[in-house]
Amino acid sequence: MGKVLIIGAGGVGRVVAYKCAKNSSVFTEIMLASRTKSKCDDIAADIKKDLGVSIQTAKVDADVVPELVKLINSFRPDIVINVALPYQDLTIMDACLETKVNYLDTANYEPKEEAKFEYSWQWAYQEKFKAAGLTAVLGCGFDPGATGVFTSYAAKHYFDEIHYLDIVDCNAGDHGKAFATNFNPEINIREVTQEGKFFEDGKWKITKPHEIGKDINYPNIGPMKSYLIYHEELESLVKNFPTMKRARFWMTFSDNYLTHLRVILNIGMGSIEPINYNGMEIVPLQFLKAVLPDPGDLGENYKGETSIGCRVRGIKNGAEKTYYVYNNCKHPDAYRETKAQGVSYTTGVPAMIGAKLVLEGKWGGAGVFNVEQFNPDPFMEEMNKQGLPWHELHDVDLEMD
Predict the structure, then answer these.
(1) Domain definitions of the chain by residue range
(2) Domain Saccharopine dehydrogenase NADP binding, which positions (predicted)?
(3) Are the folds of 2-138 and 146-340+386-394 the same?
């Protein structure tokens, strides 16, 4: 049906490549590209061994538009799945525009030199993609991604108005390491050390990092200390669902993780400001990334599971209604299927699903879109088929004040 180019060969890229290969009737040709081609070759070899499907590999520097354009023109994909670094989003979007190819990513753009992420840079591409007749899908991982689809599904089927939204993200897994991040350490540490931010009564409210925490009960896991942080899908969801009175995002962090994080920040290793070391300019956070465990290598001994979902309160037929929709993903199950841990799996599977729906014509249109702007039903159907089954609870205590 279509050709796909996957850019990025970390844990998420591995999952996307595996799942595209498992859906080879839709993804008839697959190429995996990265700055380090050997990583692509290793994934391709595993896929050939496990699934009997051959995929192509290539080397590309996603910071360099001409390199991207050359690769895209040589392969001629129908869609590019960007699972590289968030600060490479714009160069890949520029290359897609120049080569007339559809685009999809899993995380919004953030500048390399500033710990800040927002959709304004990518939303500014709306007229360019519209004029080119191309589709750009933003934030099609799990959060952002499935959480936006969950919200859209709730709005379509169960609510006349959504008033309160709490996105809850729990990783109750144990990878056996003293300290490790579940995705790219540079991006992860930048993200979780920012000020908290949530939307309430028509405006954004700021909190100190990890200032607000509470115990939240997660299905099959139990109570876990969860902290209010800012996450990018809040920005698009309050825009696309204007009846919201409040929208928040909660994520679990262990005491051990937060202790390590405080030490990292206190000794300056979380800084993105370059320093001079023995006559060389280095960025402390990038150096730290080089010595921390590779998230792509955590899967083999990872125990436990994740639980991510949306807790929604609003009005239906004039009466108050509550709704909770979620997915639990076991790390060992993810590893058995793709040789990746659950956090990579829950990000990579939705990216494949979104690209599949674009190729099938179920999602599309000219312009730049967040996932909640599309019909949620085919995505929800695919989640159940592709390894991320979801569950829903109606009119329950959401435990959210």
Answers:
(1) 2-138, 146-340+386-394
(2) 4-137
(3) no
Angle (deg, nearest 10), helices 185-192 and 284-291: 120
Length of the chain: 401
| 146-340+386-394 has CATH 2.160.20.10 classification | no
Q: What are phi and psi of 377, to 5 degrees?
A: -60, -50
Write the DSSP symbol of residue 174.
Answer: B
Is beta strand 135-138 parallel, antiparallel or unpaired with respect to 367-370? parallel
Instruction: Indicate the pTM of the whole model.
Output: 0.94
Separation CA 119–CA 123 (nearest Å): 6
| Domain 2-138: CATH class, spelled out | alpha beta
Q: Using one digit for the tens of pLDDT, what is the confidence trace for 207-254?
A: 998 999 999 999 999 999 999 999 999 999 999 999 999 999 999 988
- pLDDT per position as a tens digit, 361-382: 999 999 999 999 999 999 999 9
Longest dimension (CA), the chain: 68
- Helix, strand, coil shares of the chain, percent, nearest 5, are 40, 30, 30
